[in-house]
């Protein structure tokens, strides 16, 4: 083993620990749900993106079991070589229908969806206009594409227009998160679409935290703003409200035909497994039939935010059920999280580089499966720890 390399890693890890940025990964001994078993202890789960409880819903589990029996576990190889299972096609048709677009294509994750789409549609000589708080997978995909990246101030349309006005010879692409996952605010998509028309550029929205949350029956941000057919590409992620794993791009038939030929994660990485696909399909069916889970999620979010504010916490400017509890220093946030865990609340602290330095927080992920008693239990614990650490009076 290379000793210098081992020493390098030691030093880096030590630095992370000193700054309070070292990730402690908890081990779950139970399925996802409102309460989970972690390291022998039952704790209230405020850390998962399982917004609607579909990660362990009896119908999604049953659909996965059935697919396992009918199709086995593995997809065999990439779809262009081993052929595509009918289940994947069925899911893509369902997704297109749900999102009210012509077509959709699935990928192995939300991260991979961005990596698949951005480098396939823009490259050297093109310009990407990217919100400064966009998700890491968008940032990585932009870098991979080789296009020039111009970053605009978060949610600031003047800043976006300023860079759109600058000289461009190749294609232009505006890319934004739909819901910004660390703050819970919503992208100004109607304004973005207007600017895209004015400056003749492509629009792409990553709706990872909008699906299952925004719009009618959780159809997402495009539906929320009634912008059907106005956005070129919608990226979806199944690992949040949908409760499974995988991702997708949705838009025109031409887009999907093009991505099937050009998107490298589609061409060089195998598809999501049949049980995952079947469970995703079931999640969409559940959403289509009934929006009570979406309603419950919003009710829970409103209740929790209101009570936290009343208690004196700064919960930022979230417009969705995501509740950031702003604490400033990474060390304070990680101590807060540790103390909450002692009190049986699992709410992870988030620091740099996921959020800017000095803006560390506990990000509370509210779910439709939390009961009012769960939320009141958490409120008591937040208040107790908040007083102990002098965050609130
Ligand atoms: N895009 C955004 C905006 C996200 O928030 C996330 C998840 N944190 C992803 C993509 C990645 O999704 P996945 O976990 O499915 O790779």
Topology record:
Layout: H1 3-18, E1 35-38, E2 41-45, H2 58-71, H3 79-82, H4 86-99, E3 103-107, H5 110-121, E4 127-131, H6 136-145, E5 148-152, H7 157-165, E6 172-177, H8 189-199, E7 202-206, H9 221-224, E8 233-237, E9 247-251, H10 253-262, H11 264-268, H12 274-289, H13 292-310, E10 323-328, H14 330-342, E11 345-346, E12 349-350, E13 360-364, H15 372-388
Parallel strand pairs: 2-11, 4-5, 4-6, 6-7, 7-8
Antiparallel strand pairs: 1-2, 3-9, 8-9, 10-13, 12-13
The protein binds 4'-deoxy-4'-aminopyridoxal-5'-phosphate.
How is this structure best described in words?
This protein is an alpha/beta fold and 393 residues long. Helix content is 44%, strand content 15%. Helix 2 (58-71) packs antiparallel against helix 12 (274-289). The longest helix is centred in the C-terminal third of the chain and has 19 residues, at 292-310. It is globular. The protein starts with a helix and ends in a 5-residue tail after the last helix. It binds 4'-deoxy-4'-aminopyridoxal-5'-phosphate. Residues 109-111, 135, 137, 177, 181, 206, 208-209, 237, 239, 247 line the site of 4'-deoxy-4'-aminopyridoxal-5'-phosphate.
